[in-house]
Design brief:
Structural class: alpha/beta
Largest sheet: 8 strands, mixed
Distance between the termini: 81 Å
CATH topology of the largest domain: FAD/NAD(P)-binding domain
Number of helices: 18
Oligomer: single chain
CATH architecture of the largest domain: 3-Layer(bba) Sandwich
CATH class of the largest domain: Alpha Beta
CATH superfamily of the largest domain: FAD/NAD(P)-binding domain
Strand content: 15-25%
Shape: globular
Helix content: 25-40%
Number of strands: 24
Length: 632
């Protein structure tokens, strides 16, 4: 055995552990102090909503959940000065550090995160600690919009036309597009005059202010393969694009910043943070079941507030079904087994769970200094550039500088100048000058929950080498999961069955995506001039199957199965004729008056892209529905 290599590897292991568990905290403290001292515009304590401690007994609307949907609803409903609106959020204020794009994953698994773990299955997430996936979800004002990668993608026209065709009038693409436009503030110059965009809304859209030098070559390689560089939020989706992001002046534009801060001083609007909702108060009447109010716990004190008009649950695709079931709305047998009084038997609550699972860890080494190597770029000089000029490496999320939408149902990948007939891609690529090796585990290993064994085998020998990464994202999974209660305790996390790869077709699609990525990354002249090559240090369990074989790729897929943080569809929208539908096309819970669900859980099918923009659209449309109903 080569003692020099053993010494080098031992040193790298020690260095990475030190960097991950000690220096990371030091940097976080340094960033926070620097922002408070030199960037008061980001700290902006005077612009943030105040926490209500004295409550009215009655509000017109009680909104449960201060995530993306709840922020939009609180703004739009409180526009009417005659309506009293209360927003309840289990977490606290949005974190200041989330403003920095490069720290997008740094706040996962802190007190700003619900820290969910789906159940172990043995079929996915095998590279993770305990072979269990991590599902970060934002806990605090802004919800997951303060933890996400800031990517703004609406999905595909056909997604929404399918919703409408399933018995949901008003939800076709042409009918929802105005609600995307309503809140958009497009600042990417080339799209300002596009009919698919507008300026002046609450939610600001920009490109990252910094890009790694390899980005032009990533786009050139796409053109070389016959794909257009286009507005993937425009007339057609298939192709490559520089990422559209929820940024304002180079820093994160969360839903809380966009929608709550402008409404913070309205006298008819209260925000209560650290307020964990335990259940909705339900009442059986001769004419049916009615939602009357909400029971919540704020810092150890239980409160009850009543809703004159409606209770709106916007707690997200995990918490929303949990709250519904705790309140007696859900599958009858499951509720009875936990001793929960049933008010409405809705078998679909918690079912139909869909998520965008991806294959992570696809690492391509390059010979040139063109990527995001953390020790080289994240320096005190970089912090100075961020503080003084709002620019530099801290102003990017390098793991997704470029994205692509491709259709692997076609026999040929290259489009050769022709349009794909139906423009309904089934794979998304997240591409950027960032790989799991370039940060020594500071962000990627920690956020994803990778086991030390897996990280060491695959990345240790190429630690801090220049490399770019590509995530292959399954846009329309066939597999389904579910969410059920673990107990009747509102403080115990529910049981999450992610359902990854329960349908074989999903594995086969991701295998095809891996082969596309290999061709794109290693056979195009634009990337070959950097010496792009797949990381040879594969996980031994997969390597013995023969690198680049179908069996190898399936092994990689089942080991590095990464959520793209898009759990959806657990309280699906649909007509009464659909036995699994939970809400109608106006987002009213079937069989319950004065109760709506407005968040990602109402999607009948997951959209073909990142879900934050669609959730904001759903809330914009839902707010208009509420206004129309109560103006009669």
């Amino acid at each position: 055995m080569d003692c020099t290599n053993v010494y080098r590897r031992s040193f790298l292991v020690f260095h990475r552990l030190l960097n991950t568990y000690l220096s990371g905290k030091k940097w976080m403290v340094f960033f926070f102090v620097a922002i408070v001292k030199y960037r008061p515009d980001l700290f902006a304590i005077h612009e943030r909503p105040r926490d209500t401690t004295v409550f009215k007994s009655n509000y017109d609307f009680v909104i449960v959940g201060g995530g993306s949907a709840g922020c939009v609803l609180a703004n739009r409903l409180s526009e009417n000065p005659e309506w009293q609106v209360l927003l309840l959020e289990a977490g606290g204020p949005e974190p200041t550090l989330s403003e920095i794009p490069a720290l997008a994953t740094a706040l996962q698994y802190t007190w700003y995160d619900w820290k969910y773990h789906p159940e172990h299955t043995g079929d996915a997430c095998l590279a993770y600690k305990g072979e269990r996936c991590r599902w970060p979800r934002g806990k605090g004002l802004g919800g997951s919009s303060v933890l996400n990668a800031m990517l703004y993608i609406r999905g595909n026209r056909r997604d929404y036309d399918l919703w409408a065709a399933q018995g949901n009038p008003g939800w076709s693409y042409d009918e929802v597009l105005p609600y995307f436009l309503k809140s958009e503030d497009m600042r990417i110059r080339r799209y300002k005059d596009s009919p698919f965009h507008r300026s002046g809304g609450e939610l600001t859209i920009e490109h990252f202010r910094y890009q790694t030098p390899i980005v032009p070559d990533l786009l050139e390689a796409a053109v070389e393969m016959g794909f257009p560089i286009r507005d993937c939020n425009g007339a057609r989706q298939t192709g490559f694009t520089k990422s559209h992001c929820t940024l304002r002046n180079g820093v994160r534009c969360s839903a809380a910043k966009a929608f709550l801060r402008p409404a913070r001083n309205r006298p008819n609007f209260h925000v209560s943070m650290f307020s964990h909702v335990e259940k909705i108060i339900m009442e059986k009447r001769s004419e049916g079941t009615v939602a009357r109010g909400v029971v919540f716990n704020k810092r150890g004190v239980r409160h009850t507030v009543y809703a004159n008009k409606e209770v709106i649950i916007s707690a997200g695709s995990i918490n929303t079904p949990q709250i519904l079931m705790l309140s007696g709305i859900g599958p009858r047998g499951h509720l009875h087994s936990l001793g929960i009084k049933e008010f409405n038997d809705l078998p679909g609550v918690g079912q139909n769970l869909q998520d965008h699972v991806s294959t992570g860890g696809n690492l391509f080494l390059v010979d040139n200094p063109v990527t995001f190597v953390m020790p080289r770029l994240i320096t005190y000089k970089a912090v100075e550039r961020f503080i003084k000029r709002n620019s530099g490496p801290l102003c990017t999320f390098a793991g997704a500088e470029v994205m692509a939408f491709i259709d692997l149902r076609k026999s040929e990948w290259a489009m050769n100048g022709t349009e794909i007939d139906d423009d309904w891609p089934n794979i998304q690529l997240l591409i950027g000058g960032f790989g799991d090796n370039v940060d020594g585990g500071t962000l990627g290993m920690r956020a994803n929950g990778l086991s030390f064994d897996y990280y060491s085998e695959v990345y240790e020998k190429v630690l801090y080498n220049d490399a770019f990464g590509i995530h292959t994202v399954l846009l329309r999974p066939y597999s389904r999961g579910n969410i059920t209660l673990r107990s009747a305790d509102p403080y115990e996390h529910p049981v999450i069955q992610h359902g990854y790869f329960t349908d074989r077709r999903d594995v086969e699609t991701l295998i095809a995506a891996a082969r596309f990525v290999m061709k794109y990354a290693t056979q195009t002249a634009a990337l070959r001039r950097h010496g792009a090559r797949y990381n040879p240090h594969v996980y031994p369990r997969c390597g013995v199957l023969g690198v680049n074989s179908d069996a190898f790729w399936e092994c990689v897929i089942r080991h590095y199965s990464q959520t793209i943080y898009h759990p959806t569809c657990t309280a699906k929208m649909g007509p009464l004729t659909d036995p699994m539908a939970v809400v109608d096309h106006e987002l009213r819970v079937h069989g319950v008056e004065k109760l709506r669900v407005i968040d990602a859980s109402i999607m009948p099918n997951i959209v073909s892209g990142n879900t934050n923009a669609p959730v904001i659209m759903i809330a914009e449309k839902g707010a208009d529905m509420i206004k129309k109903f109560w103006s009669k």
